[in-house]
Amino acid sequence: MLFITAFWTVDPFTGDVVRDFSLDNFRTLWEQDVYRRITLRTVGLAAAVTVTDALLALPIAYYMARVASPRTRGILVVAILTPLWASYLVKVYAWRIVLAGQGPLNWALAPFGLEGPGYTTTGTWLVFTYLWLPFMILPVYAGLERIPNSLLEASSDLGARGLGTFRRVVFPLAFPAIVAGSIFTFSLTLGDYITPQVVGNTNFIGNVVYTNVGVANNLPFAAAFATVPVLIMIVYLALARRAGAFESI
Amino acid sequence: MSRVLLRLATVATLFFIYFPLALIGLYAFNASITQGWPIESYTTAWFGEAWRDEQVRDALWMSVKAAVLATAIALALGTLASLGVARYRFFGRETISFLVILPIALPGIVTGMALNATYVRFGIDFGLLTIVIGHATFCIVLVYNNVVARLRRTSPNLEEASSDLGADSWQTFRYVTFPQLRTALLAGGLLAFGLSFDEVIVTTFTAGAEQTLPIWIFTNLARPQQLPIINVVALAVIALSIIPVWLAQRLSADPTAAGGAAGAAATARQ
């Protein structure tokens, strides 16, 4: 239904949906600079969030999988999982408080003469990173846990230091798991419109789709733009499959 | 040395994950109507205020109704789908498991749009029914995942033995299959309830003029005089969504197993 709607158009005078096949919506998307910029901005943000999450997830996942005792590990898994279920909107709202002008972040940074990002794209990036972090930690943890100890021992027997072992042995083996986590962080960022609206100041694909459904009442155009993240995800999933990520979800 | 660093990083990450949630807990007791930091004085007055607010109560009631109905549909359809996929081989079996999982792999805005377009096309009025259908699409997968995982661990021999002993298929389900699935169903149902209770994105496309609790929060964010009440409601929503999940995790023997399904399914809330 969604894909069929994308080919319809809205009559500019009556505002009614014209149910004829047409590529007008996709032509608008392709030819207008604004939409190309918004698409690039959204993909860029999704990529930035994914990379930050991977960097944040590796140490804690490594600690859980390799250092912690089984008991601590169990507690940590539950500790990471539980906030996933705390309402998404409430978490975004919590960040609205944190980033507020008179909020805790600015208060904590003030003694150092710094200022928080406030409600900007940097703020949006920070909040997305926060929201999807558990989706990255869990697969990476599962991936690291599967690495046999013998490989790490072999690496140090052959003279590799901690960092060398990490770079040459652990990271390549954990890479499929990171890609598996990135599927979540990437697709979730692509489709979101609430976070940019609450803690940001620019539009992303989701915002444009949302306004076109509601305010502008141009369902066909919204449907056409909504196919863009779907196409991006299909390409991304195909790449992820080649990286062996599907065994790691 | 590197161990100490790892431990520090772990503690820092946990702090990063938990401090915004803790903050909500503090702000719910903030006496001032402006939401500055540090909080100067504390009060419990906003809890009563929130409870007396008619809109909040209507939204809460709507959320509960939608979550209960969506969970019921998810339990029925999710169990049927998982029994079919796990116990029988038939043409299109792979397709069914793919179709059930699809709504959690798609961005929520796409699911919402698709539902919205379908409702408009067929002239279905927005209301409780459309919210419930929307929630059920992604709740089914939670029940499905939990039940399929359980069915893989239980042997079909028991069911065969039951029919060898002369039970008809309903009796076999009632006395043999169902007791084995009970905790998996309960866990899946609780997860579905928690997820439905929080959902925003799909709901904004399917609710029309009705308000669920998360939608109420979303529409009132821009009104400064409502913020103290939002703080209280936010705290209540955290409690109401975490408690069922905590129960679900305790019910399933392996907490990480429920977690895996949970993690994947939490995608749906977006």
Task: Kindly summarize this structure in a few lines.
The complex is a heterodimer of chains A (249) and B (270). By secondary structure, chain A is mostly helical. Chain A is 74% helix and 2% strand.
Explain the overall architecture.
The complex is a heterodimer of chains A (249) and B (270). In chain A, α3 packs parallel to α7, α8 crosses α9 and α9 runs antiparallel to α12. Chain A has helices spanning 2-5, 24-31, 33-67, 70-85, 88-99, 104-109, 121-145, 149-157, 162-191, 194-199, 205-213, 219-242, and strands at 9-10, 17-18. The two termini of chain A are 29 Å apart. Chain A contains twelve helices and two strands; from the N terminus they run αββααααααααααα. Chain A has a two-stranded antiparallel sheet. With 249 residues, chain A is mainly alpha-helical. In chain A, a hairpin with a 6-residue loop joins β1 and β2 (17-18). By secondary structure, chain B is mainly alpha-helical. Helix content of chain B is 78%, strand content 0%. Chain B starts with a helix and ends with a helix. Chains A and B meet through α3, α4, α5, α7 and α9 of A and α1, α5, α8, α9 and α10 of B.
**Low-pLDDT segments of chain A:** none
Approximately how much helix is present in the residues of chain A?
A: over 70%
Average pLDDT for all residues of chain B: 81
State the oligomer: heterodimer
Question: How many strands of chain B?
Answer: 0
> How much strand content do the residues of chain B show?
under 5%
Could you estimate the helical fraction of the residues of chain B in percent? over 70%
| Largest sheet data of chain A | 2 strands, antiparallel
Structural class by helix and strand composition of chain B = mainly alpha
**Discrete helix count of chain B:** 12
As residue ranges, the low-confidence spans of chain B are 255-270
